[in-house]
Specification:
Elements (H helix, E strand, L loop, with lengths): L1 H6 L2 H26 L1 H9 L3 H4 L1 H10 L4 H51 L2 H6 L2 H43 L1 H49 L1 H6 L3 H50 L5 H31 L2 H6 L21 E9 L9 E9 L3 E6 L5 H8 L7 E6 L2 E2 L5 H5 L2 E4 L10 H5 L10 H10 L3 H5 L18 H14 L4 E5 L7 H17 L4 E5 L11 E5 L4 E3 L1
Parallel strand pairs: 3-8, 3-9, 6-7, 7-8
Antiparallel strand pairs: 1-2, 1-4, 4-5, 9-10
């Protein structure tokens, strides 16, 4: 409960008080709903109640009934009206609880999403994207629907149970004793036999669901390699195994879900039998009334006990969600659209920069010092694994140096000016990210559709050598190019990346092996486009990572990264 409370944000804790009040009021209304059935029961079992009971006589006079039948009809109509109003009020009160639960879900899901994003590229690369996606979309919902909501149900049902048992104890202590001796042992037996089993089943299903999500994501993401490598049968076997595990666990959970109903029905049968035995040994005029009161109480006590047991089962099954939600930022910084820029006027300086991954024993970048001048065309080369992409991620601000610093025009790059700097940078990776949208939306990436500057798009299309490609599309710029650019070639993808960088009007353009996966002709065309772009924009700073010399031969200077040092050529 302490961990559970720590997950709930401070502003939602205050709202919890009002939710608690509505839970109590709902329990009270449900008790009133049960209590209103008693007058009908009295009138059915005791026709002389109108004359023998002072309260019944007063009601008879107040309602001005002209016969016993009309009096019963009026009382029944009043009871039906009270129960109808009670249910309407209960529904209105439940809205407070419902709004709280799902508002909290929205907040937690958004907070988890932002927390993962705010932890940066290193965290995202260290974790499986399918698992992170499941946590944001599914686990946060299971936490509120499978833990918090059942807790509210348990509290409400316990309050109702207490009120009903208190009333029965006041009127018929023997009946209350029988009920307590039956229902409480049923709850405790269920609790002690199922608590570990349910928790284990929930954790096992979560692991199987994660594996299933990961397999599906990998099979679609790596479709070509999987098909050509003949790996799909093995992946499907793993997928099938995960589904079999989920089905088996769900079946076991469904069986356990039937137990509360079975337990309570058996308890009710034993209770009625016990009451019969008591009635045989204690004759009296009110034994029928006692039976009636027990029956009326059981109408609500049995579902109440069943609700408590079922809700507790749901909580135990979803306890694993607390581990995922623990430690979440309560109020992570929400993204804002930054338009300010950190324009480059002179130099980018890396001063004695080192970077070590969290799980690495030695640095990937070790005491590197490098100066990049405005308008310079700089090529970077080196063997695989030497840290070229890591260097780019440092310049882009996606990684933070573990030692040293990065200076832009003499000003240190920090969290405070990072977004300004990123607004001034264009980045073209080896595999340019393409969103599932139109060509125009992918070039004006991050802009609302209504605010896209088509004139600007047409300008950068010519710079990126995309004009012929656009003219060949059936819908031109409004053509959808498929998820992850599935309907375009590698060269077209890279040109879209260049057009995207130019659309934002960058001062610095970084190419991370942008042509390494292309054929020689396409690579040459893109390199020519970059060189032409550089000639036409003398103030544009271009930094290129490449394996092949042909990709950086137009550069003014080439830096070679080595495992133990850096040197310039």
């Amino acid at each position: 409960m302490k961990r559970l409370w720590s997950i709930i944000p401070q502003r939602y804790r205050r709202r919890t008080i009002w939710v608690a009040v509505t839970i109590f009021l709902r329990a009270l209304l449900n008790f009133i709903g049960v209590a209103t059935l008693i007058p009908i029961l009295v009138l059915i079992l005791d026709r002389d109640a109108v004359t023998s009971n002072a309260y019944a006589m007063e009601a008879y006079k107040l309602l001005n009934a002209d016969s016993y039948s009309s009096f019963v009809a009026i009382v029944c109509a009043i009871v039906v009206g009270i129960i109808l109003l009670k249910n309407i009020a209960t529904l209105l009160l439940y809205r407070t609880e419902r709004n709280y639960i799902y508002s909290l879900y929205k907040h937690l899901s958004e907070s988890l999403y932002l927390s993962y994003r705010n932890r940066g590229l290193e965290f995202i690369k260290a974790n499986n994207s399918a698992v992170l996606t499941r946590n944001v979309n599914v686990i946060s919902l299971m936490f509120v629907a499978g833990v918090l909501k059942p807790i509210a149900t348990i509290i409400s049902e316990i309050l109702l149970f207490t009120l009903i048992m208190g009333a029965i104890t006041w009127y018929a202590p023997v009946v209350a004793l029988i009920a307590m001796c039956l229902f409480l042992p049923v709850v405790f037996v269920f609790y002690f036999t199922m608590r570990r089993r349910l928790h284990n089943i929930g954790e096992l299903e979560n692991a199987a669901q994660r594996l299933k999500s990961r397999i599906v994501a990998e099979s679609f993401r790596g479709y070509a390699d999987i098909e050509i490598g003949g790996a799909f049968p093995q992946m499907f076997k793993r997928f099938e195994g995960a589904v079999d595990d989920i089905v088996e666990l769900r079946k076991r959970n469904a069986t356990i879900g039937m137990l509360p109903q079975m337990f309570t029905e058996v308890g009710l049968a034993i209770g009625l039998t016990s009451l019969v035995l008591v009635s045989l040994s204690h004759s009296g005029d009110n034994i029928g009334m006692i039976f009636g009161i027990f029956a009326v109480a059981a109408i609500r006590l049995v579902p109440s006990i069943r609700g408590i047991m079922s809700s507790w089962s749901t909580i135990r099954y979803n306890l694993y969600t607390i581990d995922t939600m623990t430690g979440i930022e309560h109020e992570p910084a929400k993204p804002t659209h930054h338009t300010e820029r950190f324009n480059l006027h002179s130099t980018i300086e890396l001063k004695d920069v080192s970077f070590t991954f969290d799980d690495a024993s030695k640095p990937t970048i070790d005491h590197l010092s490098l100066t990049i001048n405005k308008g310079e065309r700089l090529g970077i080369q080196g063997a695989s694994g030497v840290g070229k992409t890591t260097l780019f991620n440092l310049i882009l601000g996606l990684y933070r140096p573990t030692e040293g610093c990065i200076m832009i025009d003499g000003e240190m790059l920090t969290d405070q000016n990072l977004h300004k700097w990123q607004n001034s940078i264009g980045y073209v990776s080896q595999s340019v990210f393409i969103s599932e949208g139109t060509l125009a939306e992918n070039i004006a990436f991050g802009c609302d559709k209504e605010s896209i500057d088509l004139k600007r798009i047409n300008e950068v299309i010519d710079y990126a050598d995309l004009r012929e490609f656009v003219e060949g599309l059936s819908n031109g710029l409004e053509t959808h190019i498929g998820e992850q650019g599935s309907r375009i070639s590698g060269g077209q993808r890279q040109r879209i990346g260049i057009a995207r960088a130019l659309y934002k009007g960058c001062d610095v353009l970084l190419f991370d092996e942008a042509t390494s996966s292309l054929d020689n002709r396409t690579e040459k065309n893109i390199n020519q486009a970059i060189e032409r772009l550089s000639r036409d924009n003398k103030s544009l700073t271009i930094v290129v990572i490449a394996h092949r010399d042909s990709s950086i031969e137009y550069c003014d200077r080439i830096v070679t990264l080595q495992c133990h040092d850096t040197s310039t050529i």
